[in-house]
Amino acid sequence: METQYWRSLAERENPSELARAAEAEFSENPLQQIEPGSSRRGFLKAAGFAFAGAALTGCSRAPVEKAMPYLVQPENTVAGRAQYYASTCGACPAGCGLLAKVRDGRPIKLEGNPDQAISGGATCAVGQASILGLYDSLRLKQPLAGGKPSTWAEVDREILARLRADGAVRYLSGTITSPTKQAAIDRFLGQFRNARHVMYDALSASAILDAHQQTHGARVLPHYRFDKAGAIASFDADFLGTWISPVEFARDYSARRRPPEMSWHAQFEGRMSLTGSKADRRVRTAPDEIRERLAQLAIRIAKLSGADDRFLSSASARGWQTTNDDGLPHVAERLWEARGRSLVVCGANAVHTQVLVNYINHLLGNYGATLDVEHPSRQRQGDDRALANLLDEIKTGRVAALFIDGVNPVAELPEAPGFDHVGLVVSFAGSLDESAERAHYVCPDHHFLESWAGAEPVAGLISLTQPVIRPLGATRAVVETLAAWTGQPVNAYDLLRQRYPAQWDRAVEAGYVAMEAPRAPVKPFSMAPVELALAATSPEPAAGYTLALYPSVAMLEGRQAYNPWLHELPDPITKVTWDNYASVSPAAATSLGVSDGDVVRIEAGAAVELPVVVQPGQHDRVIAVALGYGRKASERFANLGPRWIDHRPSVNDQGRVGENAAPLLAFEQGSLRYDRAGIRIAKTGRRIELALTQTHHTLTVPQQLGGEVRPIVQETTTAELGKPPEPSEQREELWPEDHPYKGHRWGMAVDLNACTGCSACVVACQVENNTPVVGKDEVRRRREMHWIRIDRYYSGPSENVEVAHQPMMCQQCDHAPCETVCPTLATVHSDEGLNQQIYNRCVGTRYCANNCPYKTRRFNWFNYPREDRLANLVLNPDVTVRTRGVMEKCTFCVQRIQEAKIEAKVLGTPVKDGDIRTACEQACPAGAIVFGDLNDPNSRVARLARDARQYRVLEDLNVGPAVRYLKIVRDGGQAGRPVPQGDKKNG
Amino acid sequence: MAEVCSPLRIPLIAGHKKAATVTEDVCRPMLRPPSGLWWAGFTLAFSLMLLGVAAVSYQIATGVGTWGLNTTVGWAFDITNFVFWVGIGHAGTLISAILFLFRQKWRTSVNRSAEAMTLFAVMCAGIFPVIHTGRPWLAYWLFPYPNFRGPLWINFRSPLAWDCFAISTYFLISATFWYVGLIPDLATIRDRLAGESARPTLRQRLFAVFSLGWSGSYRVWHHYEVLYLLLAGLATPLVISVHTIVSWDFATAVIPGWHATIFPPYFVAGAIFSGIGMVLTLMIVARKVMNLEDYITLRHVDAMCKLLLLTSSIVALAYGTEFFTAFYSGNPYEQFVFRNRALGPFAWAYWIMVSCNVLAPQLLWFRGVRRRIGIVFALSLLINVGMWFERFVIIVTSLHRDFLPSSWASYRPTIVEVSTLAGSFGLFFTCFLIFCRILPVIAMGEVKAVLHVGQASRPVQETTV
Amino acid sequence: MNRRVLIGIFDNEDAILDVTDAARRRGLKIVDVFAPYAVHGLDRAMGLQRSKLPWVCFLLGLTGAAFKVWFEYWTTASDWPINVGGKPWNSLPAFVPITFEVMVLFAGISTVLAFFGMSRLWPGRKPMLLDARVTNDRFALVLEEDNAAFDVEEVERFLRDHHALRVEEREQEAAR
After folding, report:
1. Which of A73, A219, A363, B293 is most buried (CB neighbours < 10 A)?
2. Is residue A216 scored above 70 in pLDDT?
3. By the 8 A CB rule, do B296 and B281 touch?
4. Which residues, 6 or more positions from C31, have their beta carbon under 8 angstroms from its beta carbon?
5. Percentage above 70 pLDDT, chain A
6. Cβ separation C83–A825 shorter than 8 A
7. pLDDT at A53 over 50
């Protein structure tokens, strides 16, 4: 039964009636009740009311509503005061520490746990959005038996009845970082003679583990330490976006990118990834060239190291001669310079390739420094070989019982396993996904915010998950379910408690506990596999198109497909929303005769049809397609967005968002391959209008219109940094200084050099400020509502393009052009320098938006639907939900400012720097956004405002923006270092 | 008097009219049942108006989202139509007030309908600022009225607030001016209708009421003349101020392409240009439909064509100046906007504007053209189109590509917007056609005063008692 | 108290101008002249003094402007000052446009009302018509028989000499 929330006894007695009353009560405008165009009648009504009715409602008052105060106030609970509980993010196996913000019993926001090592206080877009999953109305509310709602007692009985001790029992799960859960699974499987636990990751790193099995004798995933890396070479590893533990990596990476001391980063990749967009040196490399490049690099470094001529001799014997192309020499040199604190990572899921990577890192002496294999990461444990065997067993009907936990094999694997020959299929999925709907029984797990759990993302770091709300449905934690089936029912809390009795209380409070972990049994580096890898690598260049399947920053493997926030989040690079697509290089586009939106058919075994996106900086032979789309979960968006005569749906003809590219995956030498060589691609002639949030991609205006470059994003070089900044000239003020900022003066600084464009801030802002989701059609019409957007600009030649990410939000100008033109005084200036928007005074002339040079104002073109009352529980009660026809925009999270000021007033202390952190600043893994008081000379923001890299966008308009930007620092310009081509100044 | 007052040497009014015939000619079309042609026009106009009503109701009920606007282009058809209609209105005031001050006697035959046109145009214009808001039912918040919010007044620094005052003042003054001009004619008709039937009909009563018991007393005429002069004197700066303020909606903004000091004169000239265009369109139709050829002679057409030529040249100069200022300012954003106008995605609109407003009117240098009603009519239509596009170009091309390339966007109107525009024309012509039926389209009182102007001899004296 | 008036009806502008002028010079008391349109110079012929309307217009225009300037200052700078785009509390230049509009509004409307008052025009007032065609194409000169010395025959002859179409004598209550 679903938990009922009631505001008054009356409502509990007779909920339906009050619900109706509430409906009527909160509508400011009777027209909203009318579904225009839905029927002739409705339309006529609308027409009738339009003028007269509208005028009247201006003066309507909502009746007084009875609320029930606490009679006895629960301990340390103040109504309307948020509480924060430490927990752990369950959106992906990375296991970031969280602080869950709970208001009056409902979690409304997730923030990073600053003390926990993985998160360090930051989150990613997916983590931010995952709170919506808690309030997902399509989550299962009770177990299912044969697709019919059932009860736990029944389900338990039936399943136990069908389990036979001798049958082959297989437990298929994603990476499980929780020792408690692992133990529970083992205990459960222990009851059977032929039972096996198979782990796989839809975004597999299996090859890395296997490679270490070969070279280090232990199947471990090294714990990469980018915070120690002075020189980084990444081969197709999008470690800032999606690879293994992006939040941790992005934080550590940007910690080393603070000028003047900057680490150096080279990226070899086929598509333009988030990571590639930040690289100092980016070399376009097709996936099928990666291993050859690595071999080349290995040879060069082996040469530099002067050691190990055995390898070199065998190389030359195999006809390898080092070529002087693609900056490999330069990269080798930089890596060698930084040996012992350099790092080579590779995203390719091929064992031979990874072996070469290990060898290079070994040569550079990075093991024990930037790669920790003794306290390895547990964030990826999947074993593709085991998965392949299991699939084979399933196909040949050798599996009696299959338990599916936290994965969706039907949608995630190249070919959906047929369950017909499996005697019993049980899924633990929280909602009815592609696999669950084929299972005989579905035993829904809690949402991670509802359950007790522990995770060990990295050896020795136990991160705890504590429930922040009572389960909304009759779901049951998997560990409890398994325990029940093992015959000794126990609840998750006790299981966890038994495991960590010692530091329990402070562990729960802190959200994590560090324990002494046994060091992994690694052996000294063995050369043999390297020889094999080299043997398996051919120096001959490959040809023909290759397909690169990658996880998108928003969708990852696709378990987020239910989440509208993530679908509407523009891809950090292409700025496409609500779709996946085939991105091709400009050259390839010309040769294929396609342009943005042309639908192409890609065949590699299976076939998908996708719209093309032309991507500068992409390898000419590479076609890149994002995984995780075309999921059943996205069918819910069929009716998303405002409904009116010219409305188009957010889903495609199949009723889903995007196409599922998983069928294009393949197993090669026992590992899941994300790149396919020799695919066929053809134009279909169909076109799709993509929903882009940015359609002009450079700061250079079109050639025939002048072709000048606008100084919106400014850059400098490591060389220039040393020089003293030229003094900025003082301007005459036309007006007398009537408005001094005596107290606080809020301001923000955005470090464009640090910003990776990961877009965590965008979702964080959406959650914090109740920004509506508008749907694909509205985005197509350029009406997305995000208060903070990340502008992405390309510069330089398209084959060697440079990327700039620029977070853009309301600049809170001192001389705000928007304020002067508003006739109704609906946007005015606060005495703390805030540009305030008064929603209920706004009549929506849109004059302010027209007059905003930064175009950061957002208008409610419709009443964006908020019908899902369960999803509405995520709304932040401190922020007004805007109605149709009013303007809105970034407020610098004024609600947080007020909260902190009140807090300080109560304590009688001044507001300290850092007390107030805006949602975007809080979420940012790179620490690129800093908010604070410009009047406090020692505040971080004030210091940054004096930084040599500091500039303000469109400063010469003299609107006095309160947001400072810090210039991007491009590598180069120094003596002896080549200036990368396309290193074009935008200043 | 003729010599001092009228620069024209040949008759203003053709066909040796007498005062009585003037009354006769002007009243006849009012008193006989409407012609089939009138009915046809009325039906068309009225159905267009209904279409507009439907579109606006739907938009108000659903949201401004039913227009093709977006975050970048916040105004398009709505404000374009607003400025367009206000502009149309200005010609009426020009003819009735400014030409009056300049003692241009030829205005007398056209000023009445020109003023009516002003009123209806301002009515059409007034609709758009209201419906373009996100919450039209709150549009009255733009006026400073005593309230319980502090009291919270309005932002007197906002050009939109200025607009509210300008437009409402303009409407009230024009309406008053028009009505004052009507009083003597209303009286004339009242007396003409008198004795038509035993019991006074509704129409008679109405004329009786609205003619305020006018008896043609010269002691009243005496004040009346002064009043008319004063109103003309007020209306003249008013009309200039109104369009100046409208132009400030853009000129005071920071958006390149809007932020220009040339706007006020540029807009005023443009307004009068478009207005004369519309007057010509209406006049040429009216004189045919209501056979008033003797009153609206080729002379009037010719005179107005010359006005067109003048204002067209001013507008052309403004277009040129804009480009020069942009180039001379050395401001890259400013320069870009104008390059973008002429060569960008909306170049087609820009060149429609130039060809209709600058190139086409050049034909009017030729007397032969000015005298050919057909061509003049076609030109007047072109000018209306061109001036609508001028506003569209100024608004949309400046907005759609402003400072940050990231927010560059395009704009496509929806069916709702187009219907609304059509509806405004429907409203305008409906009002005008009704006016033609129920009120004297020609100011009899004034025409009678200028009958003899330029006539070879005074009308022969009749000696009947 | 009633008075007797002598009325001459004329049918053109020039006639009425001459006769009025002559009558004034003869010292006859001109009650009023009725005309279908404003005949230029008739005011001089009748010897009317200049109208006071311009003063009304000027003063009320001034009042309107003054009020508006004060009101805008009071609302934006004194009663509830709000920081709008960092502009000074008293942004006088920005107040000019509305001030001007309000001035015109006051001046215009008040002048018209003043005119209605002065010339006693209001809805539904019964017009006093000397001739049904006086609003069409006839002109009428009204002379008051102010004293015994007034010789009706002689004045009638005088009117006829000036092309009066018709001359008639009437009782009329002294309206003015």
Report:
1. A363
2. yes
3. no
4. C5, C142, C143, C144, C176
5. 90
6. no
7. no
Cα A363 to chain centroid distance, Å, stands at 34
For the segment B383-398, the average pLDDT, to the nearest whole number, is: 93
- Number of Cβ pairs closer than 8 Å across A and C? 39
pLDDT tens digit sequence for B293-328:
777 788 888 888 998 999 999 999 999 999 999 999
- Say yes or no for a CB contact (<8 Å) between A831 and C84: no
Find residue A747's DSSP bridge partners.
Answer: A932
CB contacts under 8 A, B 242-301 vs A, are 249, 252-255
Show residues of chain C in contact with A831, CB under 8 Å: 83
Q: Is C75 touching A (CB cutoff 8 A)? A: no
Beta strand A264-269 pairing with A281-284: parallel
- Angle between helix axes B218-251 and C92-118 (nearest 10 degrees) is 160
Q: What angle do helix axes B108-131 and B159-193 make, rounded to 10 degrees?
A: 140
Burial class (CB in 10 A: 0-12, 13-18, 19+), B162: buried
Stronger pLDDT, B9 or A312, i.e. the higher one = A312
Percentage of chain B modeled with pLDDT above 90: 50
CA gap A620, A544 in Å, rounded: 10
Which of A794, A840, A846 to mutate to test binding with chain B, by most B CBs within 10 Å of its CB?
Answer: A846
Q: Do C128 and B191 touch (CB under 8 A)?
A: no
Please report the pLDDT score of residue A325 as a whole number.
Answer: 67
Contact B224 C94 (CB under 8 A): no
What would the two tokens of residue B132 be?
């373009």
Q: Angle, to 10 degrees, between the axis of helix B373-392 and the axis of helix B298-329?
A: 30
Question: Who wins on pLDDT, A722 or A553?
Answer: A553
Say yes or no to pLDDT of C9 above 60: yes
- Bridge partners for A100 per DSSP: A85, A110
Query: How do the residues of chain B divide into helix, strand and coil, expressed in percent and rounded to 5?
Result: 75, 0, 25
Find out whether A155 and A443 touch, Cβ atoms under 8 Å: yes
A816: chain C residues, CB-CB within 8 Å: 85-86
Q: Above 70 in pLDDT, residue A924? A: yes
How far, CA to CA in Å, does B335 sit from each of A168, B92, B123? Answer: 76, 36, 37
Cβ–Cβ contact C84 with A under 8 A? yes
Which phi and psi (to 5°) does residue A820 adopt?
Answer: -60, -35
Per-residue pLDDT at B464: 37
Identify which of B61, B74, B153 has the shortest CB distance to residue A49.
B61
Bridge partners, residue A794, by sequence: A698, A803
Q: Which residue of C has its CA nearest to B162?
A: C98
Of C85, C88, C89, the CB nearest to A819: C85
Assess B408–A contact: CB distance below 8 Å, yes or no: yes
Q: Which two tokens stand for residue B255?
A: 């958006």
Subunits adjacent to chain B (3 or more Cβ pairs under 8 Å): A, C
Expressed in angstroms, the distance from the first to the final Cα of chain A is 61
| Res A30 pLDDT > 50 | no
State whether residue B405 sits within 8 Å of chain A by CB: yes
pLDDT of residue B461: 41
Alpha carbon distance A739, B348 (integer Å): 46
Angle B264-B267-B268 from CA coordinates, rounded to 5°: 85
CA nearest to C88 within chain A: A738
Contact B156 C116 (CB under 8 A): no
Of C53, C109, C127, the CB nearest to B176: C109
- Please tell me which residue, A373 or B287, carries the higher pLDDT value: A373
Q: What is the ipTM of this complex?
A: 0.89
Q: How confident is the model at residue A771 (pLDDT cuts 50, 70, 90)?
A: very high
Cβ <8 Å between C36 and B184 = yes
Query: Bigger pLDDT: A312 or B365?
Result: B365
Q: Give SS3 for A422.
A: coil
